[in-house]
């Protein structure tokens, strides 16, 4: 069976426009010393630099600004209302951290928690959970790089990764980050190999070691995310920015609830993204903006065959220039 991608890129397509990313730790935690905190954060960044063309450098000198600002804060900070990624801090336990997409890219940890360098465990002596800073930081860094939550339970970007203790980047996370930033050649001898014709003759070997040199970066995804061409009967809708647009798929009175799948510009919509796209069975709703323009298609399946399809092309109404 083909592997299905489950990662979600943020719907606005926010990402860093450069690859040499800097970070700064503005405020250190109460429960972990400065050296171990630095070490944990650095290990967490390495998990992403190992599988992407990104590099991460800590900035310590006070005059230089960094891309990603990191801090440990208590709950008298309420900016979490603006971050859709994890709700507000709640004292001990519960929410551990939250992050903002690029270009804000901040990561805030709950300073009421007990942070450690090492695997999360319960301390009987102190009667509290000690949280693995590397693990939580690695997940939050994924957000600060532009990834939303994945539906793959083995992914680091799964919302429960902190509870399951998932510590390393999984294939789904790799696909997600490479979708945003491109892939990485692990070997330094890709050029000579490519000249020897390895891209054609030793495809799977090169996909593993030199995907970039051979243009095989998104190979695993293309196999599953085959663009589905929109059907001929596309209805064009011109909508004002900010309007909520709803679509309903299938006939008015089906005898049995049909199985429906939704696509945007040929790519299947696998999950709702709160605030942007909501999918519920036969209904799909979007909030019209620049990023939601495009062709939405629904397909009705019966016994595995697509029996009908509808498409709507959403375009924003040009805004009237007010030059009265
Ligand atoms: Zn915050
Ligand atoms: Zn998260």
TrEMBL record:
Task: Return the similarity comment.
Answer: Belongs to the peptidase M10A family.
Name one molecular function that GO assigns to this entry. Answer: metalloendopeptidase activity
- Binding, Ca(2+) 2: 67
Report which superkingdom the organism of origin falls in.
Answer: Eukaryota
Quote the record's binding site residues for Zn(2+) 2. Answer: 139, 143, 149, 157
Keyword annotations for this protein, in alphabetical order, are: Calcium, Disulfide bond, Hydrolase, Metal-binding, Protease, Zinc
Q: Which InterPro entries does the UniProt record give?
A: Ig-like_dom, Ig-like_dom_sf, Ig-like_fold, M10A_MMP, MetalloPept_cat_dom_sf, Pept_M10_metallopeptidase, Pept_M10A, Peptidase_Metallo
Domain ShKT: where?
183-217
Please tell me where Ca(2+) 3 binds in this chain: 90-91, 110, 113
| Name of this chain's protein | Matrix metallopeptidase 23bb
Residues of the Ig-like domain: 231-315
Give binding positions for Zn(2+) 1: 77, 79, 98, 108
Organism expressing this protein natively: Tetraodon nigroviridis
Q: State the active site.
A: 140
Q: How is the cofactor bound?
A: Can bind about 5 Ca(2+) ions per subunit.
Return the GO cellular component terms, semicolon-separated: extracellular matrix; extracellular space
Q: What is the lineage of its organism?
A: Eukaryota, Metazoa, Chordata, Craniata, Vertebrata
Cofactors needed by this protein, per the record, are:
Ca(2+); Zn(2+)
**CDD domains documented for this protein:** ZnMc_MMP (cd04278)
Q: Specify which residues bind Ca(2+) 1 according to the UniProt entry for this protein.
A: 113
User: Which Pfam families does this UniProt record tie to the protein?
Assistant: Peptidase_M10
Q: List the disulfide bonds.
A: 183-217
In the record, biological process GO terms are: collagen catabolic process; extracellular matrix organization; proteolysis
């Amino acid at each position: 069976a083909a592997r299905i991608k489950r990662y979600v890129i943020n719907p606005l397509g926010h990402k860093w426009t450069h690859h040499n990313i800097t970070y700064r730790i503005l405020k250190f935690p109460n429960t972990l010393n400065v050296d171990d905190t630095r070490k944990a954060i650095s290990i967490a960044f390495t998990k992403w630099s190992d599988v992407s063309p990104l590099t991460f450098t800590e900035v310590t000198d006070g005059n230089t600004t960094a891309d990603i600002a990191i801090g440990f804060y208590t709950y008298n900070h309420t900016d979490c209302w603006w971050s859709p990624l994890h709700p507000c801090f709640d004292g001990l336990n519960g929410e551990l951290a939250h992050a903002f997409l690029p270009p804000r890219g901040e990561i805030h940890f709950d300073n009421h928690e007990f942070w450690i360098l090492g695997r999360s465990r319960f301390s009987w002596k102190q009667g509290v959970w000690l949280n693995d800073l590397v693990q939580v930081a690695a997940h939050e860094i994924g957000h600060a790089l532009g990834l939303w939550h994945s539906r793959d339970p083995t992914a680091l970007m799964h919302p429960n990764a902190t509870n399951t203790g998932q510590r390393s980047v999984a294939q789904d996370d790799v696909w997600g980050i490479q979708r945003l930033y491109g892939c990485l050649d692990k070997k330094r001898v890709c050029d000579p190999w490519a000249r020897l014709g390895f891209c054609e003759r030793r495809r799977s070997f090169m996909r593993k070691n030199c995907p970039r040199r051979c243009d095989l970066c998104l190979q695993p995804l293309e196999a599953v995310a085959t663009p589905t061409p929109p059907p001929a009967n596309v209805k064009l809708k011109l909508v004002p920015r900010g309007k909520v647009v709803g679509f309903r798929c299938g006939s008015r009175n089906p005898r049995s609830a049909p199985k429906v799948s939704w696509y945007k510009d040929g790519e299947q919509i696998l999950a709702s993204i709160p605030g942007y796209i909501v999918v519920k069975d036969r209904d799909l709703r979007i909030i019209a903006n620049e990023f939601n323009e495009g062709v939405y298609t629904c397909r009705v399946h019966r016994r595995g065959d697509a029996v009908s399809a509808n498409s709507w092309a959403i375009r924003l109404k040009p805004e009237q220039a007010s030059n009265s």
